[in-house]
Design brief:
heterodimer, A: 477 residues, alpha/beta, Rossmann fold, Pyruvate-ferredoxin Oxidoreductase, domain 3, B: 349 residues, 2 domains, 5-stranded mixed beta sheet, globular, binds thiamine diphosphate, binds iron/sulfur cluster
Chain lengths: 477, 349
C-alpha cells in the first residue's frame, strides 16, 4: 500500500525499547505525563541538529531515571541530584560531546542544589532540561521544593505551609542571577502554543551547546497527573491556572549572541613535554664529601630543627635533605604542619642515612638545632649522649641543661643582620653545622642553593651567611 | 632516572600524570591540599582537566562522569571528605568505573584534627558506602610509593574496572623524601565499555541500576567473583626479617616505617623481631599472615587507630596465633622507642 509519512519517530529515540523489560513498545511513564513530551522535543532537536551520535544523556533519579531506555545516544545514569556533576565530568573529558543533564525538581532543586548552581556558575557547556512538576513523582507524590503553597502532597497532607516548609523555589530566576549561564528559559507544556515554545526552547538550548556558547537550561512546567491525583486534562488546567502564575514563563537570560564560543585546550602527550612540565630532571648524584673524615656521631644523622615560624626552620631542613640526596644518601624530611605553624612555632625532623630510613620521625636525635629558647628547652632532651646541640644565642639566654652533649653556640640572628638580612640566620646555622660535621661537600650545598635561589644577590648573601657560620666554628673550635 | 626530593602529596600528582591521568576533580582539605594545589598547577600545563569542585560529593560524581567517558581520572581528600565521597564510590563500584582516590588520613571522628591517623581503615577497606562492593586499597609508606602506587592504582583500576583507593596518612603526605620518577609517561588506550560520544561507543550504558532482582543478584555475583580474583592475583606485601622471627609486627603506612626502626633496634639487641607490611589492604595478605602465624610466638599489630586492621589480622589467623595490639589516636604517633617498650613488655609477660 502506498503511504506518505507525515510524522516520524525521531531517530534519536530507539524504535522500540529493548532496555525496558515487559512491553517494549510503550514508555514507563503514566498516561498524560509531561516527561514523554519533553523527551520527544529533545529527540527531535538532536535529529534536527544532527547531534545524535555525539550526545551523552545523563539520566537522573526520579521518574526519568530510565530515560536511557528511550534515547538512542550515549547514556550515563546518575545518583540523585548529581547529574550536573556527572555532566561536568563527561563534558570536560570529551569537549566535543553534547551533554544533557535531565532532571526533576527534587533532583535539581533539593538534593542537587549545590551541583546545579555550581555547574551553572562554572559555565559548563551542558544543557540542563529541568522538569518542574511540583512533586516527587517517583517516590509516590511527596512534597518537592517547587510544590506550591497550600498544595497537598503525601508529606504536606494539610497543604504546603510556608511557615514550616518555606516557599517554592524559582530555579530559573535563581540561576539567572549568575554571570555564566548563557541561556535560561522557563516554558510549559499545558497547551499547544506553549508546547511549541517548549520545543523551540529545547532546540535553542541544544544549538547553544553545539555552538560551544556555554551553559543552558530549560525549565519545563510539566504535568504529573498521578502525583497530583488528577486526570490528564485536569492536570493541564492546573499547570495553566496555578503553576504559571507562580512560575512566570519566558526567557530569563539570553546571552547567546554576544557570547564567544569556548574551546578547551588540547591534551599534551609528547613524553618530552610531559617530563619537562613535571620538572623531572636527572641529577648528578654521587658522594662528594670524604665520608672517612666524618666522625662517628655525625654519620647518618637524625635532626630535630626548631624555632619560630619565619626563622627558616623548615627550609633549613629541606636544604639539608636535598644535600643528603645529592650525596647519595637516603633522606626524609617531616614538618610540623597545619595551624600550629601560623605565627607560632615550627619544627621539622630530618634523617640522612646510608641505609633505608625506617621512622622519618626523629624521637632520639643526633643533632638538635634550636633557633629560640623554647626549642632548646623542648628538644635538647631528645639528643643522644654525645649528640650535637646548635643554639642560636641571639634568641636563647639560658645555658643548655645537658652536660653530656657537644654544643655550638652562635649568635646567628645578629650575624645575619650584619650580613644584610635576618632571613639568612638559618644559613649561618647551617654553615656552622656543616663545618662541624663535614657531612656535606661545600660544592653540593652550592648546587642545591643555586637550584633554589634564582636571584644572584640572594644567592650571594646566603653563601656569605654560610661562610660566616663556618668561620665561627673554625674560630671557636 | 629522574630524582627529586618531594612531598608525598606532590609525588601523587606527578605519578598520576605519568600514569596518563586526564582529569583531577577535588576539594581542599588538610593534610591533602597539596594534591589539589599541584594538580591545579600541573594538569592545565598538559591540557588536562582540573576542577575545584563545590564539594567532595560533586568531585566524586565528576569522576563518575569522566570515568564513564573513558578518562583516567582522580580525586583526593582526607577523612571528612571521604565520608562524603562514599555515595559516589558505591555508584562507581556498582557501575564498575575505574578511578583513583587518595585518602590522606587525619584525626577523627568528626572534624577531629589534622594530625596523622589511620582511623579511616574501616570506612575505606570495608566499604563505607552501601551495597556489596569492595574497592582495591593500596597503602603507600614512602614518597616513592606515593608515586609508584598511584601509577599502579591507575593500572589496577582499569584492569579490574574498579575504584582504587590510596590509603595514606598526614605524615606520608607531608613528608619529603627522594623519589625516582620513571621517564616514560603512560597513555591509556580506548576502553571497550566506555562512552566516547561517538557512534561506536553509543550503546555502552553506564549505570548501577539492575531493576530485576535476578539481574541485580547476577551482577552482584559477578562482582564477588571479580573480588575473589583480585584476592587471588593482586595481594602485595613486604616482609622484613620474618623468616627467623619470634615476633612479627604488622603495620601499614607511616606506622610501618616507625616499626621498621623498632625492629632494627630490637635486632641490634638480639631480639628476633620481624616486620610484615601489607601494601594492599584489599586484597588483604591473609594467607601469608596465616603462614607466618605457624612459626612465631605472637603478632603485634601497630596502628594509629583504635585497632581496625587488627580485625583483618585476627580473621586471617582465625585463632591460630595470638595477636597483640598497640595503637595511638588523635594525631599522636608512637615513637620507635615506645613500640620497643611495648614489645619488651609483651615478651616478658
Ligand atoms: C540519596 C537518595 N535519596 C532519596 C532517594 C529516593 N528518591 C528517588 S526519586 C526521588 C524524588 C524524585 O523527584 P523529582 O526529582 O521531582 O522527579 P520526578 O520523579 O518528579 O520526575 C527520591 C526522593 C534516592 N534515590 N536517593
Ligand atoms: S508519577 Fe508523575 S512524573 Fe512520574 S511518570 Fe507518573 S505522571 Fe509522570
Amino acid at each position: 500500500m502506498e503511504y506518505q509519512v507525515l510524522l516520524e519517530k525521531p531517530k534519536s529515540f530507539y524504535q522500540n525499547y529493548p532496555r525496558k523489560a515487559g512491553n517494549i513498545e510503550v514508555t514507563h511513564y503514566c498516561p498524560g505525563c509531561g516527561h514523554g513530551v519533553a523527551h520527544k522535543y529533545i529527540a527531535e532537536a538532536l535529529d534536527r541538529l544532527d547531534l545524535q551520535d555525539r550526545t551523552v544523556l545523563i539520566s537522573p533519579v526520579g521518574c526519568s531515571v530510565f530515560a536511557y531506555y528511550y534515547f538512542d545516544v550515549g547514556n550515563e545514569q546518575a545518583a540523585h541530584g548529581r547529574a550536573p556533576a556527572l555532566a561536568t565530568g563527561v563534558k570536560r573529558a570529551l569537549p566535543n560531546s553534547i551533554v544533557i543533564s535531565y532532571q526533576g525538581d527534587g533532583d535539581l532543586a533539593a538534593i542537587g542544589t549545590a551541583e546545579i548552581i555550581h555547574a551553572a556558575n562554572r559555565g559548563e557547556q551542558i544543557t540542563v532540561i529541568f522538569i518542574n512538576n511540583a512533586i516527587y513523582g517517583m517516590t509516590g507524590g511527596q512534597m518537592a521544593p517547587t510544590t506550591l503553597e497550600g498544595q497537598k502532597t503525601s508529606t504536606s497532607p494539610l497543604g504546603r505551609n510556608p511557615a514550616n516548609e518555606g516557599f517554592p523555589i524559582r530555579m530559573a530566576e535563581l540561576l539567572a542571577t549568575l554571570e555564566a549561564p548563557v541561556y535560561v528559559e522557563r516554558v510549559s507544556l499545558h497547551d499547544v502554543k506553549n508546547r511549541n515554545k517548549a520545543r523551540q526552547a529545547i532546540y535553542k538550548a541544544l544549538k547553544c551547546q553545539k555552538d560551544r556558547k556555554g551553559f543552558s537550561m530549560v525549565e519545563i512546567l510539566s504535568q504529573c497527573p498521578t502525583g497530583w491525583k488528577m486526570d490528564p486534562p485536569e492536570s493541564l488546567k492546573w499547570v495553566a491556572e496555578k503553576m504559571v502564575s507562580y512560575f512566570p514563563l519566558g526567557v530569563k537570560v539570553d546571552r547567546i549572541d554576544e557570547s564567544e564560543p569556548v574551546t578547551r585546550p588540547e591534551q599534551i602527550w609528547d613524553p618530552e613535554v610531559i617530563i619537562r612540565n613535571l620538572g623531572l630532571v636527572t641529577l648528578d648524584i654521587r658522594q662528594r664529601a670524604d665520608r672517612s673524615a666524618i666522625a662517628e656521631i655525625h654519620r647518618n644523622p637524625r635532626f630535630k630543627i626548631a624555632g619560630f615560624g619565619g626563622q627558616g626552620v623548615l627550609t633549613m631542613g629541606i636544604i639539608l635533605a636535598a644535600c643528603g640526596m645529592i650525596e647519595d644518601y637516603n633522606v626524609a624530611w617531616l614538618p610540623s604542619y597545619g595551624p600550629e605553624m601560623r605565627g607560632g612555632t615550627a619544627h621539622c625532623h630530618v634523617t640522612i642515612s646510608s641505609k633505608p630510613i625506617g621512622s622519618p620521625l626523629v624521637s632520639s636525635s643526633t643533632v638538635c638545632i634550636a633557633m629560640n629558647k623554647p626549642s632548646q628547652e623542648k628538644f635538647e632532651k631528645e639528643l643522644v649522649p654525645g649528640g650535637l646541640l646548635i643554639r642560636n644565642t641571639s634568641m636563647i639566654d639560658v645555658p643548655p641543661a645537658r652536660t653530656d652533649i657537644d654544643v655550638v653556640s652562635i649568635p646567628a640572628a645578629e650575624m645575619a643582620t650584619e650580613i644584610g638580612s635576618l632571613k639568612v640566620q638559618n644559613m649561618v646555622i647551617l654553615g656552622a653545622y656543616l663545618e662541624k660535621s663535614k657531612l656535606i661537600h661545600p660544592e653540593t650545598l652550592e648546587m642545591v642553593l643555586k637550584g633554589m635561589l634564582k636571584k644572584a644577590a640572594l644567592l650571594d648573601m646566603n653563601m656569605k651567611a654560610l661562610e660566616a657560620g663556618r668561620e665561627h666554628v673554625r674560630k671557636n673550635a | 632516572m629522574a630524582k627529586e626530593l618531594i612531598k608525598g602529596n606532590v609525588a601523587i600528582v606527578k605519578g598520576a600524570l605519568l600514569a596518563g591521568c586526564e582529569a583531577y576533580f577535588g576539594y581542599p582539605i588538610t593534610p591533602a591540599s597539596e594534591i589539589a594545589e599541584y594538580a591545579s598547577l600541573l594538569f592545565p600545563k598538559l591540557g588536562r582537566v582540573f576542577i575545584q569542585a563545590e564539594s567532595e560529593i560533586a568531585a566524586i560524581n565528576m569522576i563518575y562522569g569522566a570515568s564513564g567517558a573513558g578518562a583516567r581520572c582522580m580525586t583526593a581528600s582526607s577523612g571528612p571528605g571521604l565520608s562524603l565521597k562514599q555515595e559516589g564510590i558505591s555508584y562507581c563500584a556498582g557501575a564498575e568505573l575505574p578511578c583513583v582516590i587518595a585518602d590522606i588520613m587525619r584525626g577523627g571522628p568528626g572534624l577531629g584534627n589534622i594530625g596523622p591517623e589511620q582511623g579511616d581503615y574501616n570506612q575505606i577497606v570495608k566499604g563505607g558506602g552501601h551495597g556489596n562492593y569492595r574497592v582495591i586499597v593500596l597503602a603507600p609508606n614512602s614518597g616513592q610509593e606515593m608515586c609508584d602506587l598511584t601509577m599502579l592504582g591507575f593500572e589496577l583500576a582499569d584492569k579490574w574496572r574498579s575504584p582504587v583507593i590510596l590509603l595514606a596518612d598526614g605524615f606520608t603526605g607531608q613528608m619529603m623524601e627522594q623519589v625516582d620518577f620513571p621517564e616514560e609517561p603512560v597513555r591509556s588506550t580506548r576502553k571497550s565499555w566506555a562512552l566516547y560520544a561517538d557512534r561506536e561507543s553509543k550503546h555502552n550504558l553506564i549505570t548501577s541500576i539492575y531493576l530485576s532482582h535476578a539481574d541485580l543478584e547476577a551482577h552482584n555475583i559477578k562482582l564477588q567473583k571479580k573480588y575473589a580474583r583480585i584476592e587471588q592475583e593482586e595481594v602485595r606485601f613486604e616482609e622484613l626479617n620474618c623468616s627467623d622471627a619470634d615476633v612479627v609486627m604488622i603495620a601499614y603506612g607511616i606506622t610501618s616505617r616507625i616499626c621498621r626502626t623498632t625492629m632494627e633496634n630490637a635486632r641490634e639487641q638480639g631480639l628476633k623481631i620481624g616486620l610484615f607490611r601489607p601494601r594492599t589492604l584489599f586484597p588483604f595478605p591473609s594467607q601469608r599472615i596465616a603462614e607466618l602465624g605457624q612459626h612465631i610466638k605472637f603478632f603485634l599489630t601497630v596502628e594509629c587507630s583504635n585497632g581496625q586492621m587488627l580485625h583483618d589480622v585476627r580473621l586471617a589467623l582465625n585463632g591460630t596465633c595470638p595477636v597483640e595490639f598497640y595503637g595511638r589516636m588523635g594525631g599522636e604517633v608512637p615513637s620507635a622507642e615506645e613500640i620497643f617498650g611495648v614489645l619488651t613488655r609483651l615478651l616478658k609477660s
